[in-house]
Amino acid sequence: MDTSETTTDVKEEDEHHEHPSDGKYMQIALVLAIITAAEVATYFVHIGDALIPTLMVMMVVKFWIVAAWFMHLRFDSKMFTRFFVAGIVLAISVYFIFLTVFEFWTEG
Amino acid sequence: MSEETTTGLSHNKLAMWVFLGSECLLFGALISTYLLYRNKFYDGPAPGDIFDIPFTSVSSFVLLMSSLTMVLALAAIQRGDIRNNRLWLLTTALLGAVFIGGQVYEFTTFIREGLGYTTSPFSSAFFTLTGFHGVHVSLGIVMLMSLLISSYRGKLTQKNSETVEIIGLYWHFVDVVWIIIFTVIYLVPNPTS
Hints:
The structure holds two protein chains of two kinds. Chain A folds into two domains: 21-76; 77-108. Chain A is 78% helix and 0% strand. Chain A has five helices and no strands. In chain A, helix 2 (22-44) runs antiparallel to helix 3. Chain B has one domain (11-43, 52-187): Four Helix Bundle (Hemerythrin (Met), subunit A). In chain B, helix 1 runs antiparallel to helix 5, helix 3 (53-78) packs antiparallel against helix 6 (161-187) and helix 4 runs antiparallel to helix 5 (121-152). The mean pLDDT of chain B is 96. The interface between A and B is large, with 57 and 55 residues.
């Protein structure tokens, strides 16, 4: 088997994607700025019990936008996404258990 | 990237992603520890009394926009535009420096108001978490300045744009960590004394 040919094919498939234009990046930054403004607004406007879920959703959306567009996970090999997501999932699992053991969810 | 690899992917880039995956565990530990100790401020200032949300919002916005300038620096070097690459790298480093300046100001203010590193479990956890993040941003600034120096020496060209991409990944990661810290530590309602 011609290994070099195979790896080149994979590389082309995985890494040779068109990245967004500068204008697109600026549009994405504008979206991030709007979400940040909305996050900060929650400090001044009382929204009751919806506050924490709203903040968490906006945080996750911002995280995803930066990872997908600015870190190019949308365009790069899925292998990179897998390694990064593995770290995130492991961290969330370990520290969820850690916080549960120390009764964070029940006692704050 | 010029060399062939068994995966067809750049080993350097893959190593950076693995490193960033491991960094999630580091920051996860620091954030979880802070959450456990945020109510333990004893006689010292409480988080709700001392945090200046409008000020931190501005510095968070500055760091967020540095991710835009970083990706513009990468886009510039990938199309061989050395001049704009230098401009955006310098802008990113400056925005990072503004963020660090804000953090130094915040820490100084807190210490003046009686919140030292050993004042309470809350203060230790807070300074450790935000301090570790600040060190990451500072290292990022050093890496950006190194790229800039390499560029002026003629060593940073379109051919080795992957170096900018890898340092960019680190920079964006530092930004996404702050997205979490800003929400979980500052914006989620904090206890007051």
